[in-house]
Structures are given as structure tokens and as C-alpha cells.
Design a protein that fits this description.
six-stranded parallel sheet; 36% helix; Dihydrodipicolinate Reductase, domain 2; 2 domains; globular; Rossmann fold
């Protein structure tokens, strides 16, 4: 059965969803809506589909089976609730929502409706990320000791000025952490496990007229005993590719965007050299380091394929709502620590 997709919110990220849907057999873009009808009509001119005036009208369309929410981060809950009540499956561009409570409300609504809920984190589907995760699960790192995420990006003042929602707590949910670095926060949690305690500092140093941080640092204590660091910024010129570093008593791996930069284990295997060679030189774009549009849609397409399979099989997708909530919970704790000046324990 072909699944019809309706997109809510027709800004930049919606285009990546549309391209991913087009590249995923069994999915077809059929509808779109936006707060400004002109935006939806412009989007539909590039990606042919029906345009609806409201979320309710789109969700009433029997040809829409899956709703993709691409609106501002703090405006994900309300259309998600409407879609779930209409019996539509829901995919939400990161973050799932901007508070843990709003995430939980959406998760519970989708559970009650019996529909699939997935949070978009395409970096989990990159080959290097999956290779490192498999090595963690196989115990190749020995005891995990350090897990670090570095997102040193650059955004101009014009970027924040381009939309009234950008840089606000209500609709952006935060700054460099919640909007940009959340992909790396998700990867770090996926690979290293849950965080027990965090101590953090944030600042706004290079941009004007925004409520949120453009620089953040956090030190982490993971539940498994390992330590770690998160650094995130949109104030580092000219912008660098994001890095994930996983270290243990028997091995280390470093990922820079989609490239495997280090792959070294005390108990080496004959395949290790070939793995490193195959996963080097995979980054084909700027990774969003300086230009938010300079990303590929292949990770989105891989995730849409998993969502399609989950709907057909009646199973949870690989990244469901509760997985999406984890990064929001950690970032919220980082903000709490930065405001209070105290370490924060996660429940």
C-alpha cells in the first residue's frame, strides 16, 4: 500500500522532507499546509501536491496517512495532537518539542490513538554512526570512559533576523543546543547511554536581539560512570564540521560529520582497516556548519524508509517519540544548570 504524506509547515526543512519522501518507495507527497497560504502554494509549485488552508483540513484528507510536522520547534505539539486524533501517523522534525512536558503530551496522544510517532534524527542513519554504535554494543570499546560532542557552527545575525520565531524560548526552545547541536546530543546519548548529572554554562556573545544562547558548554556524568563534554555554538567563524568522540579502555572512534576520522581498538580485527577506509571521505556537504541549507536529505530518506516499514509492520520506528524526548530532557537539564549555577541530576 502506498502511503500519502502531508506536510505541515513549508519552510526550508520541509523541502528536505519532500525530497526524502520522493526518494522513498511506497511514499507519496499528497498535501501541504502552512500558516501563510502563499508559502504552501510556493512549496507546492516545487513539490506538486494539494494545498489546504488548515491543519484540520489536511488531516481530514483520506489520502493522507502520515503527517510530517515541519513548523517552528515550539509549534509541534498542536498539529501533532490534531493528526493523532485524526488517526494519522506522525513524523516530527527535531526537536520533538521544546519541553519535556510538551513531548510527553504528544507521545501519550499518539499512544492513545495507536499511531506511529517518529522524531527526525537523520545522523543516526549515517554509515559511520551505525558502525560506531555497533562497536559500542559489541563491547569493542571496553569500558566506556569519555563521550564528547562538539558543534562549533556559525550563523549570521541575518539568520536570526530572518524569522520572528528564531532565537526565542517559546518557539525555538533554545539556541545552539536545542536548534543546532541536538543532532549530536542525540547521537551521544544513543552511543554512550543515559546521563546522570550535568553541569553547564551558556552565554549569548555574538548575536543581538535573541533570547537564547549562542555558546554553551556542559560536562556530563553518564549513568555507566563515563564522563563527557558537550560544546555547542553558532558563534564560531567560519563554522566547523560537528564531531563525536567515543573513547573507552580498549578503543576510540571519532566521527566528523559523516566521516570516520579515527577507528582504533586494542583488539584489532582484519576488517578494521577496510572499515576506516570505506567510511572516510563520506561528507559531501558543509553539514550545516555555516549554511543551514548545506545538508543532504539522504539521512531523512533512510529514516522515512524505516517509518514506512514500521507503519506496515505495526511496530515502533527506530527513533520513536520517547527516543526523541531524551535529547530534549538533557538539553533542558543543561539550561537549568546554566541558570542556577548548580549541577542538575536527571530523573
Amino acid at each position: 500500500m502506498e502511503l500519502g504524506v502531508g506536510i505541515i509547515g513549508c519552510g526550508m526543512i520541509a523541502k528536505f522532507h519532500a525530497r526524502a519522501v520522493a526518494d522513498t518507495p511506497g511514499l507519496r507527497l499528497v498535501a501541504a499546509t502552512s500558516r501563510q497560504r502563499a508559502s504552501a502554494e510556493k512549496f507546492a509549485a516545487d513539490f506538486p501536491c494539494r494545498v489546504f488552508n488548515t491543519v484540520e483540513e489536511l488531516c481530514a484528507d483520506p489520502e493522507v496517512h502520515l503527517v510530517a510536522i515541519c513548523s517552528a520547534s515550539g509549534a509541534h505539539l498542536e498539529p501533532g495532537l490534531i493528526a493523532a486524533r485524526a488517526g494519522k501517523h506522525v513524523v516530527v522534525e527535531k526537536p520533538l518539542e521544546v519541553t519535556v512536558a510538551r513531548c510527553e503530551e504528544l507521545i501519550e496522544a499518539c499512544d492513545r490513538a495507536g499511531v506511529v510517532l517518529s522524531t527526525i534524527f537523520p545522523s543516526r542513519f549515517h554509515a559511520a554512526s551505525r558502525q560506531v554504535k555497533a562497536a559500542v554494543d559489541a563491547g569493542r570499546f571496553g569500558r566506556l570512559t569519555l563521550g564528547d560532542a562538539y558543534v562549533k557552527w556559525y550563523r549570521t545575525q541575518q539568520y536570526y533576523d530572518s524569522g520572528a520565531w528564531r532565537g526565542t524560548w517559546e518557539l525555538d526552545g533554545g539556541g545552539a543546543l536545542m536548534n543546532q547541536a541536538i543532532h549530536s546530543v542525540d547521537l551521544l546519548l544513543w552511543m554512550m547511554g543515559e546521563v546522570q548529572q550535568v553541569m553547564a554554562h551558556t552565554a549569548t556573545l555574538a548575536h543581538e536581539n535573541i533570547e537564547v544562547e549562542d555558546v554553551a558548554t556542559a560536562t556530563l556524568q553518564f549513568k555507566n560512570g563515563a564522563l563527557g563534554v558537550i560544546q555547542a555554538s553558532t558563534a564560531v567563524y567560519p563554522g566547523m564540521l560537528k564531531r563525536i568522540e567515543i573513547h573507552g579502555s580498549r578503543g576510540s572512534a571519532i566521527i566528523e560529520e559523516e566521516d570516520l576520522k579515527l577507528w582504533s581498538f586494542a583488539d584489532a580485527t582484519p576488517d578494521d582497516e577496510a572499515i576506516l577506509r570505506a567510511l572516510t571521505g563520506k561528507t559531501a556537504t558543509g553539514g550545516g556548519a555555516a549554511d543551514p541549507a548545506a545538508i543532504g536529505h539522504h539521512g531523512h530518506a533512510a529514516q522515512y524508509a524505516d517509518i514506512r516499514d514500521a507503519i506496515r509492520a505495526g511496530r515502533s520506528p527506530l527513533i520513536d517519540g520517547r527516543e526523541g524526548q531524551k535529547s530534549v530532557a538533557l538539553i533542558s537539564a543543561i539550561y537549568q544548570s546554566a541558570r542556577s549555577g548548580q549541577a542538575v541530576r536527571l530523573s
